[in-house]
Design goal:
The protein is about 45% helix and about 15% strand. The protein is built from eight helices and five strands, in the order αβααβααβαβαβα. It has helices spanning about 5-10, 30, 35-50, 65-70, 95-110, 125-135, 145-155, 165-175, and strands at about 20-25, 55-60, 115-120, 135-140, 155-160. The longest helix has 16 residues, at about 95-110. It is globular and about 40 Å long.
């Protein structure tokens, strides 16, 4: 049964409930900082144009707090907070991936597994959580040392912070075998 808190949180518009075939989990603990939010906003917006994608959050914080931060940076309207996973769900980050997959499965009547779930994060812990929880991982690295750490942990793709929207869309397309638009 969904938490009463989650039913109060907004959901991204579904434009007539299109079939959802992939889930992108944004690890927001680093994402919701001013310098990062400005870079990621165009990526989130471009991905929101893909009707087959569900974008949500994964965070050690509570849901309303995450929504408030995302809203402050203009990111909330493209994220479905109702299917996200939060610190109240588990203290084990890998379990948060499965929690978000289950919520998305219930809401969208689709299966979400490693085949069609991507976790986006910037730390070795994010990579371990994604791989351990049943997701492919896009690591976002601030510098060469961070990139090496993410690669060593097993991220499927590592992008530099300055990869831009095109690079990010290409990485998502590669991992999900989506055609370019």
């Amino acid at each position: 049964m969904p938490s009463p808190l989650l039913t109060l949180m907004p959901s991204a518009p579904t434009r007539g409930r299109p079939v959802k075939s992939a889930l992108i989990l944004w690890d927001v603990d680093d994402l919701l900082k001013e310098q990062t939010a400005a870079r990621v906003r165009p990526v989130l917006t471009a991905l929101a144009e893909r009707d087959e994608l569900v974008q949500t959050v994964l965070s050690g914080d509570n849901g309303p707090g995450v929504f408030a931060k995302a809203d402050r940076f203009g990111l909330a309207e493209v994220l479905d907070f109702q299917v996200g996973a939060y610190g109240l769900d588990s203290r084990v980050r890998a379990r948060l991936v499965a929690a978000a997959q289950r919520r998305a499965e219930r809401k969208y009547a689709a299966d979400f597994t490693r085949r069609n779930t991507i976790l986006v994060g910037g730390t070795p812990g994010d990579v371990r959580a994604g791989l351990g929880g049943g997701a492919k991982v896009i690591g976002v690295a601030a510098d060469r040392a961070a990139a090496e750490a993410l690669e060593w942990e097993g991220a499927d793709i590592v992008l530099p912070v300055q990869a831009g929207t095109g690079g990010f869309l290409a990485a998502v397309g590669t991992l999900l075998a989506f055609p370019a638009r």
